[in-house]
């Protein structure tokens, strides 16, 4: 039998009576007990929802909040939610400002080292093509092994090392982005976003970091994971090993690579790097990317620790602050039992 429908506009009337399915019931004590039981359930459910929300924003502490109207610590749920909302909007504003500065300073304005996009030189284009052909040092290593189907362009090892270091780090962001718990707040294609980030510039990651802070859109259903996203998350350990190896090889290549060429010792290569950063817009942009990754890596890993295998959460929590290493740890310890 379905539960009786309660049709009353107030919990108690002057005669302590309610109407149930049109019949008068004079058993006030029975109805009062039911009302108090229902009220307790509603209050308990409300408190659970409040705690769930606060856990999501990472601000709830057990014992601090007891009810909506207040609590120790000078606030209550409403006050904390309001502060969190202001903080969220402040961070979003800072990220959008950073995006504007990134685009203007690195792409359009002539004040940064090197040439802006609208006045890029042919020499810079040739260097970019050469660096792309030496992606992950595949061609140079094949040539060194005696395979000469395509000859690798000979560029300064410091330039090659810096380029592949940033690319290797970017490569490992794929499993992190495709397993991000707030990725559905970005309505665009994550495949395209990561592709642009990987092969063009880091400018696409900054808007994502801002958009993922939007409030949940309850009318927007969760998206199914794309084929690329599934490959990157299920193969996260491989992605982490390849990306980590590329970053490690890039470091050694920058210092010791092409030893048979006329690129000098470590001191000479360091002087070249400083000159390279102060004269080439591409190299200068890579330094910006590295600085942003140092911020975004622990941020994204920290809010996605629930994706990590339970016995590995502790080590990932500490390693997330170490550039590159923290992202390698995330990829290797990603829990593949979860659906992303």
Automatic annotation (TrEMBL):
Keywords, alphabetical: Membrane, Transmembrane, Transmembrane helix
Transmembrane feature ranges:
90-108, 128-150, 162-180, 192-211, 231-256, 282-306
Q: What protein name does the entry list?
A: Transmembrane protein
């Amino acid at each position: 039998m379905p539960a009786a429908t309660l049709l009353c506009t107030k919990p108690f009337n002057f005669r302590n009576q309610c109407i149930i399915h049109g019949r008068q019931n004079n058993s006030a004590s029975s109805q009062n007990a039911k009302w108090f039981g229902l009220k307790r359930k509603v209050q308990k459910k409300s408190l659970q929802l409040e705690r769930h929300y606060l856990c999501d924003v990472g601000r709830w502490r057990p014992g601090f909040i007891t009810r909506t109207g207040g609590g120790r610590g000078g606030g209550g749920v409403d006050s904390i939610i309001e502060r969190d909302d202001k903080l969220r909007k402040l961070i979003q504003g800072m990220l959008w400002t950073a995006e504007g500065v990134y685009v203007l300073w690195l792409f359009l304005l002539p004040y940064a080292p090197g040439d802006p996009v609208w006045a890029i030189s042919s020499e810079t284009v040739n260097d970019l093509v050469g660096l792309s052909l030496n992606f992950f040092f595949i061609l140079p290593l094949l040539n060194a092994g005696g395979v000469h189907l395509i000859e690798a362009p000979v560029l300064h090892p410091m330039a090659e090392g810096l380029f592949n270091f940033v690319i290797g780090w970017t490569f490992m962001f794929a499993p992190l982005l495709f397993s991000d718990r707030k990725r559905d707040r970005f309505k665009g294609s994550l495949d395209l976003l990561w592709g642009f980030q990987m092969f063009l510039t880091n400018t696409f990651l900054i808007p994502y970091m801002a958009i993922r802070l939007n409030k949940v859109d309850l009318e927007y259903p969760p998206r199914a994971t794309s084929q690329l996203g599934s490959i990157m998350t299920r193969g996260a350990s491989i992605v982490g090993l390849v990306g980590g190896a590329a970053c490690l090889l890039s470091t050694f290549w920058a210092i010791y690579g092409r030893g048979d060429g006329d690129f000098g010792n470590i001191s000479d290569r360091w002087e070249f790097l400083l000159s390279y950063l102060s004269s080439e817009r591409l190299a200068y942009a890579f330094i910006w990317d590295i600085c942003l990754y140092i911020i975004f890596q622990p941020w994204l890993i920290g809010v996605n620790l629930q994706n990590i295998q339970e016995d590995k959460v502790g080590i990932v929590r500490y390693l997330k602050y170490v550039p590159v290493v923290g992202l390698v740890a995330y990829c290797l310890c990603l829990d593949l039992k979860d659906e992303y």
